[in-house]
């Protein structure tokens, strides 16, 4: 096996593990039979970073599991305040916020340490301020933010290069002849332009998914009758691409696919193969992002993320309540459920449910329905 870029023979000394689907966005598919260490270090690292950076908000909200590290925090906006969203959706203030009244100064901070720094700064203007007393009287609390806005930018030539690299890697990993894709390498290396990578906007879903399924998919299709050899790439269900490898394919019928569920962290098998006709490839492919369709897809994606987040939150609430109950009522002393245990568990769960999901039932303190 040779490096498909420089053609040097791959050995234990120079082989490297390449993620076909980026690990930073949850990809687990990887291979050691693609490129040598030298080529891997220079080939596409910048474009991989751009793709990872643009999709980081999605990876963050889904708390994507990586081989190393976690998705980066993202910034959001709650009314006129900036917030930091940690992986999994936990939110904290981006900085302390101060409200000065006639006699009282109100400070909201994410930690006692941050509040202490603010108090020390204020003490220069208010020498009589008793910092220890203020900290002693501080109140810890949880505050539900009913609506947080985050920004998401997607697209550009580097994104197309990164998708093209994924397609080429998958083709070679599945035994494809590297000479077939040599014409695409200058594009991936930013040396030439190429029109083989298209955004794909099908009228129907190409793979059925349950309400809480969010997948990465990559499919290789070769059809001698249509002379078309292409790779279909789908990230987080809604970022869809078609990469044409050849329009003069005369080999055997070819079909290879890989699907990974980012919620359950498992490979998914589809019995029915993907079918995209030449007419659909022509009709539903586009060189540029269609903004209205992109917004529609993001709405669908965030609705799915919301369902996943709610399910995970419910699991966490019930598990934490059970753990607290077991700690308070040890099984060796309480071998069966008692009325007191049931009351304790119900109260714990109810409190967290109201705190977490109150915006779905109340708005602005009024008893009225709210769309979610």
Would you give an account of this structure?
It is a single chain. 34% of the residues lie in helices and 19% in strands. The chain is of the alpha+beta class and 372 residues long. The protein has 3 domains: 74-150, no CATH class; 155-286, no CATH class; 291-367. Strands 14-13-10-11-12-9-15 form a 7-stranded antiparallel beta sheet. The longest helix is centred in the C-terminal third of the chain and has 38 residues, at 291-328. The relative contact order is 0.10. The model is unreliable at 364-372 (pLDDT under 50).
Helices and strands in order:
Layout: E1 18-19, E2 30-31, H1 37-42, H2 45-61, E3 74-78, E4 81-85, E5 91-93, E6 97-100, E7 105-108, H3 112-123, H4 131-136, E8 149-150, H5 157-173, H6 185-188, E9 197-200, E10 215-223, E11 228-235, E12 239-246, E13 254-261, E14 266-267, H7 278-284, E15 285-286, H8 291-328, H9 339-357, E16 362-363, E17 366-367
Antiparallel strand pairs: 1-2, 3-4, 3-8, 4-5, 6-7, 9-12, 9-15, 10-11, 10-13, 11-12, 13-14, 16-17
- Structural class computed from helices and strand pairing: alpha+beta
Contiguous low-pLDDT stretches (5 residues minimum) are 364-372
Amount of beta strand = 15-25%
Separate helix tally: 9
Question: What's the number of extended β-strand segments?
Answer: 17
Arithmetic mean of pLDDT = 90
Q: Could you describe the largest sheet, including whether it forms a barrel?
A: 7 strands, antiparallel
Radius of gyration: 26 Å
Which labels suit this protein?
single chain; 372 residues; alpha+beta; 3 domains; 7-stranded antiparallel beta sheet; 4-stranded antiparallel beta sheet; elongated
